[in-house]
Automatic annotation (TrEMBL), chains A, B:
SUPFAM superfamilies for this protein: FAD-binding/transporter-associated domain-like (SSF56176), FAD-linked oxidases, C-terminal domain (SSF55103)
Signal peptide region: none
Keyword Ubl conjugation attached: no
InterPro entries hit by this protein: FAD-bd_oxidored_4_C (IPR004113), FAD-bd_PCMH (IPR016166), FAD-bd_PCMH-like_sf (IPR036318), FAD-bd_PCMH_sub2 (IPR016169), FAD-linked_Oxase-like_C (IPR016164), FAD-linked_OxidoTrans_Type4 (IPR051914), Oxid_FAD_bind_N (IPR006094), Vanillyl_alc_oxidase_C-sub2 (IPR016171)
Coiled-coil zones: none
Record keywords, A-Z: FAD, Flavoprotein, Oxidoreductase
TM stretches of this protein: none
The name this protein goes by in its record: FAD-binding oxidoreductase
Cofactor(s) named in the record: FAD
Amino acid sequence: MLIDDLRRDLPADRLVQDPDVIAGYLHDDAEWAPHGKPAVVVRPRTAEEVRSVVRACVRHRVPLVTRGAGTGLSGGANAVDGGVVLSTELMSAIREINPMERLAVVEPGVVNDDLRAACAEHDLWYPPDPASAPWSTIGGNVATNAGGLCCVKYGVTRDYVLGLQVVTGTGELVRLGRRTAKGVAGYDLAGLMVGSEGTLGVITEVTVKLRPLRDPEHTVAGYFSSVVDAGRAVAAVADAGLTPSALELVDRHCLAAVDRWKNMGLAVDADVVLLGRTDTPGAAGEQEAERMLDCFHRGGATWAARSTDQEEADALFAARRLAYPALERLGPVLTEDVCVPKAVVPEMLARIEATANRHDTLIANIAHAGDGNLHPLLITPPGDDAARERAQAAFHDIIADALDLGGTVTGEHGVGLLKRDGLAAELEPAVLGMHRAVKAALDPHGILNPGKVIPD
Amino acid sequence: MLIDDLRRDLPADRLVQDPDVIAGYLHDDAEWAPHGKPAVVVRPRTAEEVRSVVRACVRHRVPLVTRGAGTGLSGGANAVDGGVVLSTELMSAIREINPMERLAVVEPGVVNDDLRAACAEHDLWYPPDPASAPWSTIGGNVATNAGGLCCVKYGVTRDYVLGLQVVTGTGELVRLGRRTAKGVAGYDLAGLMVGSEGTLGVITEVTVKLRPLRDPEHTVAGYFSSVVDAGRAVAAVADAGLTPSALELVDRHCLAAVDRWKNMGLAVDADVVLLGRTDTPGAAGEQEAERMLDCFHRGGATWAARSTDQEEADALFAARRLAYPALERLGPVLTEDVCVPKAVVPEMLARIEATANRHDTLIANIAHAGDGNLHPLLITPPGDDAARERAQAAFHDIIADALDLGGTVTGEHGVGLLKRDGLAAELEPAVLGMHRAVKAALDPHGILNPGKVIPD
């Protein structure tokens, strides 16, 4: 029996079989994605313990789902019937922060914001900043190749992963990647693990690249009377050759929800707010902020200004980060994550608006607008099945529109369960075949997060 | 017969069977790496033609070696007996430069410097700049994940590849990756292709990310009386938290060889020259240059100054780029490519010096010192077999020292043939097993550049 093996190989307190406790490990934050009932939850403390878990799963051919904080939005961490859920929550040590090599070595359960804070003490910066940064873990960020607000200038998690320690699908504990600044010794298997959503290996340690702490940012805020106008301002910023350090779109549904929750006194006398930032130092930064402001005006802003009040600017960005949990309080939220070429951001936003009308569905919008990564949030009243069906139809239309405009079905949340059909629509059959071949090569027993990512 | 299939499927002028012409396609620029005698060289013009070649090779189980300009330094493009050599030289169109999306789409045979020049017309910049940039192709750069001088600040080829069109080992023509700024739809197969040295697919198109043209650079030059002192200055730059846009080391052997060849009037009254650059705009850049100068002095520079003469600065960097071909004129050069943590650059340079003495071998040094990527150049008199054996022994000792100091056997040149043993020494057996599994998954017939990268 699997359980006997786990009891033999792990200290007793690593196993969770109490159904009430297991209930907290059944699924991630993706509404409407199905989940199963696991046989057991394990919370290992070491890579060796993770290896024991994987080996037990290999011996008994039992599915293994790895999860960090469960903040994922695609169902990638959802439990499988009769399987094992492996939570990395007890592997939360920051092992090394090395200013000279500009790298950090962390266990997978380290919370993103905790790493950021620890780096700041050394005047260093770990850029990837998903909105879930206060809760999500580096292991989960790596597994989903998480993005965030500063990606528009600084790239995504993939761009910061130097090396990984991983337990493979055959139960081997291996090191992939490197600690040096450069290296091309063999295939980029560390890179292949990034974004593979627990289907190719279980991450037990992460080595990330760091940057020096950056200069304070200038903030530009703009109010618009439609998402399409705001989209035009975004396209204008790209067209002007600017490189903002953030360019976020938040609509009034989101601002109102945050305000009702946190009472932040946010101005919501606009349909859409666009928040731009630049961290270019000195006079060049001042100039960039002015040029961004000009783009906002050209996009049709009803009001726009450079923020002189740092607290006010921070409050607006905090509201952006809180938009998702704030909306969740109002009812089930189905989160989209399409990414389209910058030139078609206005067109895509217009299509989302048309989709909302066509399906009589409330769609709030937040977006990492600067890189065309849009998060329409489909909100339904709790218990209204008809509304839910309409929202599902809207969800599919948005995916189809994104593909039609040359975009992708997932910019940063991952495929998980919610985007498997989308993946099949986006990728050629031969490319799906390559996915299956790689999966079979590295997880020959098919135990690692089966049913996720790759369509049947 | 393979040849019959190729004659049937391709226009006649695509095939080369004249031994005198084939002689120019036998090997890359890696001295001492063995090569075979191919049955035919093909020069396709389109992705469909490439597919025909791969399919013919699959049908007849014939090895296929893909090559760009043949400037590789590890034997990765060396011909295999009885196989096909596919040259991408006729696929040299720049298909698109898109300022708004900040990307370019090119055929694999586009020369690196040609892409750079075309981008500059749009005020855009393609950063990866291997010293071979005037000759090497983007396809080859992608296949080897080429680095260069500006990697120390801007990263390597991998960091700029958004998408690829590839013919797989089963002869399917597929698109991997994306055109959008972000995307996590499935495994990062485009990333897996980067640096796989033609063993997983044949690249027929490359979509690269671009950056805005940057500000002019400030140059700092320092003379040192030993490589170890220069190494100390490099470590001081890293320790000071500076991010130079280039930090190159060139020793007097290299400068003298370039000067003898090009008559540039280079000052060679120092054993080692360190060249630093910063492109941070405005006053911050001035300050960074001053701080770099200070680090050079602290490292023990006998003379150091900020270059006020742009021509002189450019001449020094041109000399750096010409060092390798200049030395090649003097005799066979065996090029090393180890990369070590920045903190141990002085120690590694000291060990290289000791190795040169121990094996009575002339070792010249160029280095992308800022990221610890060292290129000791082992020079032997033509025809001196004993010297050649001593150089081989030195080559192996340098690899062993790099691994001992936590480095990698190849920072940017790739594994090819010369570093297969090094790869086996660097990677755990289980990781080599993962390489073999991925190779078998994507090239099930074993026709793509067999015998390269992965040790037997």
